[in-house]
What does this fold into?
Amino acid sequence: MNSTFLLPPFLISLLLLLIRSIVGVSFFFSALNKAKNPRKSAKRNGIPLPLLLFVMCAEFAGALGLVSGILGQFAALGLMLLMLATMTLHVFVWKSKYWAGEGGWEYDLMLFTLCAVIAAFGVGSIAM
It folds into this structure.
């Protein structure tokens, strides 16, 4: 870590663990929701079933990588790609507004940004 940070290294690692945990749990439950009824989820999102199954597996794997810290930066990069694809669908295909409360892509942008923090700064020292 850069020695110019005002926070002690342990606190930085704790904050990175918090970010990893929140993002990892979010992706885990997103994948779990898709796994309950993949055909219905694929139809609702207007994507082919094989693509939905790929996204579901990628979300599970990314969540596991973030929460454990094992290959966490690679997991964050992969999840950033998923969020870019999702935001692209929101803007260009579904014509969604920005705000998540209106079915928009605000939440996806937040997850993308948090994954970018992990990709840039690493998983911290509190990891497997």
